[in-house]
Amino acid sequence: MRNFNPESLSLYLVTDRGLAGERDMTDIVREAVAGGVTMVQLREKTCGTREFVELARGLKQFLLPLGIPLIINDRVDVALAIGADGVHIGQSDMPYDIARRLMGEDSIIGLSVECMDDVIGANALDVDYIGVSPVFSTPTKTDTACPFGLEGLHEAVRRSVHPVVGIGGINAGNAAEVAGCGADGIAVVSAIVAASSPFEAARELVRTMSL
Amino acid sequence: MRNFNPESLSLYLVTDRGLAGERDMTDIVREAVAGGVTMVQLREKTCGTREFVELARGLKQFLLPLGIPLIINDRVDVALAIGADGVHIGQSDMPYDIARRLMGEDSIIGLSVECMDDVIGANALDVDYIGVSPVFSTPTKTDTACPFGLEGLHEAVRRSVHPVVGIGGINAGNAAEVAGCGADGIAVVSAIVAASSPFEAARELVRTMSL
Fold first, then answer.
1. pTM across the whole model
2. DSSP B181
3. Cα distance between residue A209 and residue A188, in whole Å
């Protein structure tokens, strides 16, 4: 059976190649994990499948011994190829039931929700967590619906039967407020990936949330 | 066991959304099949996974009763999702051994080869066919190596242990010459997808090759 501890959602890093610039994504993830990241989602939208698989395999090698779940964004094939812990799907990715059938009962599947209807819809699914997206407006994702805001996130937490992670525009300046909404964790992209020190950025987020 | 008849390669349609313009891809494939296409590869590089899955499912519904194999380009997850007949992978897609493991022994797996070393390399793999790419230079694919030409295709046919299909710049004007190189078939993109009548275009290609 599934072995997913929602505490893993606490500080959830989502990668973004565009924000990494010339830096190696594996190095960024390594630093971020040393700084306190508790779960990692590899998101690749532009590279070839072979490169995606190789990158994912490399991440798995050092995350597995640490007990940090590795989640693949959208690509069930890449997740199956390397035996990732799970996939994260959005509303226009693989339908949930197919993703579950292909990934198996033991895998973690997270689902992005972009409005309150999605939150309610997800209640009928056996997903392992929902990603409320975006909490704040963000330049990283420009194709999403209007932000939930802290109030919307709070309502999503109240109405969802699943663990909830907030994503979108979260940084050290607002992480405490987000955590205060009752979410199981925060997911960050630029606050860590674009930071000059992903290690310090992760540590600062951990510190802020535990205040 | 695998049930692949290399005669299916005879006139192999590879889709391209960019060349379809405003027209519906399913309509184009339907017309092309009526005109004589013997195998279809759905190639999607820009749309979301859900749309890809829905398009593939729609194509499967009408190709299956006709006994025309449906092959998915690159995306093993999409192929598994709809139970496609197989996948076609390139040199920077999913590595062959992983694709075979995920797809199973019964599925068709085709591999693009871009130079004679790739042809030789493919001889060691249990692929079902190789796609010699490109035969001629083509505006559809700009990231490939220099064209094989008719002589290179002939050599590839001679050196490969697998069925061979030529792809790249093939149209009614040169299809007969390509067929004359001993390949099991031709794969076409723009010659059918961009044609004002995909039905007539396919019919013309069949006619040309049987002369």
1. 0.95
2. T
3. 13
- Residue (of A136, A95, A94, A132) closest to A116 by Cα position: A132
| A107, burial (CB in 10 Å: exposed 0-12, middle 13-18, buried 19+) | buried
On the question of a cis peptide bond just before residue A95, with omega within 30 degrees of 0, the verdict is: no
- Predicted local distance difference test score (pLDDT) of residue A142: 60
Tokens of B56: 């593939």
Decide if A141 is catalytic.
yes
Q: Can you tell me whether residue B83 is helix, strand or coil?
A: coil
Is the CB of B16 inside 8 Å of chain A's CB atoms?
no
Q: What is the dihedral of CA A153, A159, A163, A164, to 10 degrees?
A: -10
The pLDDT of residue A143 is 60
Euclidean distance between CA atoms A151 and A161, whole angstroms: 18
Of A10, A112, A160, A190, the catalytic one is: A112
Establish whether B112 is a catalytic residue: yes
Express each pLDDT in B28-39 by its tens digit.
999 999 999 999
Cα Rg of chain A (Å, integer): 16
Would you call A201 exposed, middle or buried from its count of C-beta atoms within 10 A (0-12, 13-18, 19+)?
Answer: buried
Q: Find where tokens 């190829």 sit.
A: A81
B109 reaches A (C-beta below 8 A): no
- Find the closest chain B residue to A79 by CA distance: B77
Q: What is the 3-state secondary structure (H, E, C) of A41-71?
A: EECCCCCCHHHHHHHHHHHHHHHHHHCCCEE
Beta strands per DSSP E along A95-139: 108-113, 129-132
How many secondary structure helices (H) and strands (E) does chain A include? 10, 8
- Asked if A187 contacts A167 with a C-beta cutoff of 8 angstroms, the reply is yes
Return the axis-axis angle of helices B198-209 and B25-35, rounded to nearest 10°: 30
Q: What is the mean pLDDT of residues A141-154?
A: 83
Q: For A7, which DSSP code?
A: G
The type of residue at B69 is P
B48, B81, B94 ranked by CB distance to A49: nearest: B94
Which entry of A17, A30, A43, A57 is annotated as an active-site residue?
A43
